[in-house]
Write a structure and sequence with these properties.
By secondary structure, the chain is an alpha+beta fold. Helix content is 19%, strand content 38%.
Length: 160
Amino acid sequence: MASRMTTHYQLSQYEATDQILRADVNADNEKIDNALHNNAYGITAIKTWLNGTQHVARVVSGTYAGNGRSGNNNMNKLEFNFTPLLVIVTPQGGTSYQTPAIMVRPATSTSEFQLQGHYDATLSWANSSVSWYSDNAAAQLNESGTTYCYVAIGYSADIA
């Protein structure tokens, strides 16, 4: 049995004296398989949608500084010069207790999702932006003194 687990996916981390159990390895492989499948599913859905349109795919990355605020009156908002379909946000340097937030544009304008696997957050999409909030600054990806990195994939109607 593993002595430690990884931070984000709780995969087995073995010490030299640990007994490696087949059940642990199989459970780790299942977690990895599920994570890869979920990411591939979101990307495939975006590609399928774009292929049926006259839109041009767009990708942008950037950073923002957290300000320590949270809640409905202090929403995080990222604005783009295209329509975002997938946005991933993570703390720069990957702090040990935060995992990336993966936001995939839903069929409706607002949906509930979880940030950091523990905190409910509300997510809203507009034509060229995404906004979200939670009742906790860390869960909202808005801790004071923390720089956050993001990447957004989407589309625009123009070719330029």
